[in-house]
Design brief:
There is one protein chain. The protein is α+β, with helices and mostly antiparallel strands and about 270 residues long. About 20% of the residues lie in helices and about 40% in strands. An 8-stranded mixed β-barrel has the order 1-2-3-4-6-7-8-17.
Length: about 270
């Protein structure tokens, strides 16, 4: 027997846009080296590995791997995992699913088409970041850092879209990556725009980064005076993330589309 695997585009309602992630449905935990090999083979920004938990119904252990490292928090691969569990009937539509992760218990609720996720808020603390301006090629108007990433606010949406970073210098700054953001241009159907660079994690530029919105949500809520926001990540594929701030939590919402269903046959390979 093989292991079921899916590829799902997250934070989009259209195939071949948004952020793709692989989802591997396991019946029991697997070795870390094996999961890392599968993630490297898939070459997506993230591959999610989900295993049923014994503690409660509709509860699962969830781990995320880039092609080169395991990460503590990932939004789009959580969205895709919940989407698959609903779609294949492992969890009934509309019933909450709980994921045990390195960032604590994360819950999702929804249906195969659209998911709401309960994540921890990860606000950035203002801090000067030496070398950031040189890495980006533009002067930020605000910089800060949370436990994972650097956040840089730029003057305009156009400035965010035009940045061509030096990835070697970005990686040298430390941490997981750099979030760029600015308030949306007038008339846009979203409140802020962002991009995310994580060369240290093997992802030079991520397509749509749910976990970055755990930082962007608190930041723009304080700037714009609203707790319900819509973000657009202006990558090559692009995607929309709905954000709602709830005390020390952030509710992230988005759509997802399955584009591939298959079976992993090489599931007992050696190191």
């Amino acid at each position: 027997m093989g292991v079921p695997i899916y590829v799902v585009d997250a934070f989009t309602g259209e195939a071949f846009s948004g952020n793709p992630a692989a989802v591997v449905l396991l019946e029991e935990p697997r070795e870390e080296w094996w999961m890392q090999k599968i993630a490297a083979e898939m070459k997506h920004a993230e591959t999610a590995f989900v295993t049923p938990a014994v503690e409660a119904p509709n509860s699962f252990a969830l781990r995320w791997f880039t092609p080169s490292v395991e990460v503590d928090l990932c939004g789009h691969a959580t969205l895709t995992t919940a989407h698959v569990l609903y779609e294949v009937g492992r969890v009934p539509s509309g019933v909450a699913v709980a994921f045990e992760t390195l960032s604590g218990v994360l819950s999702c609720r929804g249906c195969p088409g659209e998911i709401e996720m309960d994540f921890p808020a990860e606000p950035a603390v203002e801090e000067e970041i030496p070398g950031l301006e040189e890495a980006l090629g533009v002067e930020p108007c605000w910089t800060g850092r949370n436990r994972m990433d650097i956040l840089a606010q730029l003057q305009s949406e156009e400035s965010v879209r035009r940045v061509e970073p030096d990835f070697a210098q970005i990686e040298a700054l430390g941490g997981r990556g750099v979030i760029l953001s600015a308030e949306a241009a007038p008339g846009m159907p979203y409140d802020f725009v962002s991009r995310f660079f994580a060369p240290a994690a093997g992802v030079p530029e991520d397509d749509v980064t749910g976990s970055a919105h755990c930082c962007l949500g608190p930041f723009w809520a304080s700037k714009l005076g609203r707790v319900e926001l819509v973000g657009y990540q202006a990558s090559r594929r692009g995607g929309i993330v709905k954000v709602q701030l709830r005390d020390d939590r952030v509710e992230l919402g988005g759509r997802a589309v399955t584009v591939l269903e298959g079976v992993l046959r090489c599931y007992t390979s050696s190191r």
